[in-house]
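User
New here, explain this?
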Amino acid sequence: MESILAHIVYCESRMFLDKGPYVSWRDIQDAYPDYKASLGAWSEADIVGFLSDDFGAECNWPFSRAAIAFFFGSKERTLDEMKP
């Protein structure tokens, strides 16, 4: 079974996860005009670990653990950050 990977993408207007088949960050930059930076491609566990290390408590994360798990099990290509 092929492992599912996603990038954390930072744009001027939003932050989101993207499961697109990008070869490099330049491909992501070409896909989003307001691109700033990206991390990955990472597994679900790697993304959860990064968010835990970087944001601390899950209530501070831009995506809930449940939303990330659902996203990785879905056919959706992107997952937008939660808005307060």
The two ends are 36 Å apart (CA to CA).
